[in-house]
Amino acid sequence: MSENLTLVQAVRDGLHDGMAEDDDVLVMGEDVGQNGGVFRATEGLYEEFGDDRVIDTPLAESGIIGSAVGMAAYGLKPVPEIQFSGFMYPGFDQVVSHMSRLRTRSRGRFTLPMVLRAPMGGGIRAPEHHSESKEAFYAHEAGLKVAMPSTPYDAKGMLIASIRDPDPVVFLEPKKIYRAFREDVPDDPYEVELGDAAVRTEGEDVSVFTWGAMTQPTVEAAENLDRIDVEVVDLRSLSPIDFDTIIESFKKTGRAAIVHEAPNTGGLGAEITATIQEEALLYQEAPVERITGFDVPFPLAALEDYYLPEPARIAAGIEEAFDF
Amino acid sequence: MTETIHRAPDDTYRVLDENGELVDGAEVPDLTDDELVEMYRYMKLARRFDERAVSLQRQGRIGTYPPLSGQEGAQIASAMALADDDWIVPSYREHGASLVRGLPLKDTLLYWMGDERGNAIPAEENIFTVAVPIASQIPHATGMGWASQLKDESDTAFMCYFGDGATSEGDFHEGLNFAGVYDTPNVFFCNNNQWAISVPREQQTATDTLAQKAAAYGFEGVQVDGMDPLAVYQVAHDAIEKAKDPDEDEMRPTLIEAVQYRFGAHTTADDPSVYREESEVEAWKDKDPIPRLETFLVETDRLDDAAIESIEADIEDAVADAIEAAEETPRPDPASMFENVYAEMPQRLEQQLEYFQSIRDEYGDEALLED
């Protein structure tokens, strides 16, 4: 049995199933209880599981993440929500100083089976600080896994995999596509393995690596390019990254473009490019193109479309890689 | 030592009761009749602006907007208590306080239309840039006050606004603690509107009041009826005086908890009917600061129907003019997102700007915009 769900509904479904199968799983954060989450990602969970397992916390990100670390170390499996990834930073110390490295620091005595969820990214005309893409911060941090689904099916499967994972996962949800389209999502719990990329469109000429809300415009750009046979790979998992799939695709095409909405400098595009150089240099026929956000603070809504890569800019980058 | 500031944190200061009558023994602040009417006019203007802004958002003419209705008394009266050289350090809901301090309503609209130019406070106005991340402006206000002291200024106060939810953040604690340690000329003005989106004040902290938290930092914390503009004015005024010129045994900073209510949603993206009862909203509307002040002014012959009518007509025009000016402002130049990132644009950013302009030239702006 399955249901036709949006991405945010699939997140909600994943949380539900994760809680239903394991009493240790709980959800906590600002407005996740009676309000059902500002994006409705926790709708109905408060009514079903009660206020011991769906917890409205005070407005304090360090408190939320830090106490989730304590709960996880003491045997629960918390799934804290930070309302927007742009508000993570009061709790960032907890993420990078403790959540990522408690296993290491305690030599395995204390482990953190927790999932830190946050909506991220631009494209919904949100106010200041609500639109950034900072996935590279988390992928840069050893000890964390980082997931960013781009489809409802993956959202549920990756969330369940994350909840069951023995290590802490930062689960970033591209809110631009929370309700962009629906997909059949199985009713029963299932896993989409973390660390496993998905080839969305097969092709022979140029490999394009992307993730999150950029997947759809990249597929669209690929479809518009009649003269180029494009392969689109949706990484889905940003730590660990599925470099096997990336290298295999690149060896086939010898040309690559990377699309991400995060700023160019220090973005994950650089990591992918460097790995291609290390592992497949002799296959390379063109410079790797990066089509990304600019190295400026994310602009307010009136200019956000100009900041975000969209099909025309993506297509231009793919053509550069092809025509070199 | 004033009794408005030196009182138990739960001894809420009041001047007007809910019917606009003077509370027994209360004194009207030392304001001229014109200033009192001005206070009323600003509150009405803020309310009308708010109603229109919510409606503009519903029509898709501005983006997400945080309403302030119910909170005019606290915002307007506290801002009016400041001297010209004083500063406000606002959160994102202080359209009323900013209006008093000289920010054109057009700029407030531009900001919520997603135009960066709405964030460019006119150079002559002592208003700090809006802070969206909760409580993050509190240490800034402390730092500004601290800097003022280090520069040997003695006549400037720094009024920082934040909400009840902000008192749970580390930045609240750290900002107020620094203010206590360095005895900075700050007034920390907490707009306790009872709800941090869906989380009620009772779930935000286990203390009876927010005002009492000041004790932990070594200075006074007082509650004031935040829907009583005259009480707010007096407490804010006395706290500002204390910030600039404390008695020998007084600390400069004060925490003011202005007890009030947000009549509307947290923002236009929020639906409060999911988490609170309409009867609660109605009960608080009985304390609405605008009719309270109006009744007081009419009863004391400072205001009459003709004046009210004329104020209302002026306000309608002022709001309409602001909307027209904002909507007639040409859209920002897309290349402006590369401006003001650094004093001098680094070479790499220059290259990105060149590439951006070449893409615009080649494909046209239409191709870069979402459908």
Instruction: Give the number of helices of chain A.
Output: 12
Strand proportion of chain A, as a percent range, falls in 15-25%
- Which parts of chain A are unreliable, with pLDDT below 50 for 5 consecutive residues or more? none
| Overall geometry of chain A | globular
Helix content of chain A: 25-40%
* Cα end-to-end separation of chain B: 62 Å
Derived from helix and strand composition plus strand pairing, the structural class of chain B reads: alpha/beta
Biggest interface pair, counts: A-B, 45 and 52 residues
The CATH homologous superfamily of the largest domain in chain A corresponds to: Thiamin diphosphate (ThDP)-binding fold, Pyr/PP domains
Helix content of chain B: 40-55%
Structural class of chain A: alpha/beta
Pfam families (chain A): Transket_pyr, Transketolase_C
Cofactor (chain A): thiamine diphosphate
EC number (chain A): 1.2.4.1
Enzyme class (chain A): oxidoreductase
Summarize the structure.
Chain A: It is an enzyme of class 1 (oxidoreductase). The complex is a heterodimer of chains A (324) and B (371). Chain A is α/β, with parallel strands linked by helices and 324 residues long.
Notes on the protein architecture:
The complex is a heterodimer of chains A (324) and B (371). Chain A has twelve helices and 14 strands. Chain A is α/β, with parallel strands linked by helices and 324 residues long. Chain A has two domains: 2-186, Rossmann fold, CATH 3.40.50; 198-323, Rossmann fold (3-Layer(aba) Sandwich), CATH 3.40.50.920. In chain A, the strands form four sheets. A five-stranded mixed beta sheet of chain A has the order 9-11-10-13-14, sandwiched between helices. In chain A, strands 5-7-6-12 form a four-stranded mixed beta sheet. In chain A, helix 8 packs across helix 12. The longest helix of chain A is centred in the first third of the chain and has 15 residues, at 7-21. Chain A starts with a strand and ends with a helix. By secondary structure, chain B is of the alpha/beta class. Chain B has two domains: 33-328, Thiamin diphosphate (ThDP)-binding fold, Pyr/PP domains (Rossmann fold, 3-Layer(aba) Sandwich), CATH 3.40.50; 334-368. Chain B is built from 13 helices and seven strands. Chain B has helices spanning 33-58, 72-80, 95-100, 105-112, 137-150, 170-182, 201-204, 229-244, 278-285, 289-299, 305-328, 347-363, 365-368; strands at 87-89, 158-163, 186-192, 195-196, 199-200, 220-225, 254-259. In chain B, the strands form two sheets. A five-stranded parallel beta sheet of chain B has the order 1-2-3-7-6, with helices on both faces. Chain B has a two-stranded antiparallel ribbon with strand order 4-5. In chain B, helix 8 (229-244) links the parallel strand 6 and strand 7 (254-259). The longest helix of chain B is centred in the N-terminal third of the chain and has 26 residues, at 33-58. Chain B starts with 32 loop residues before the first helix and ends with a helix. The relative contact order of chain B is 0.16. At the A-B interface, helix 3, helix 11 and helix 12 of A face helix 12 and helix 13 of B.
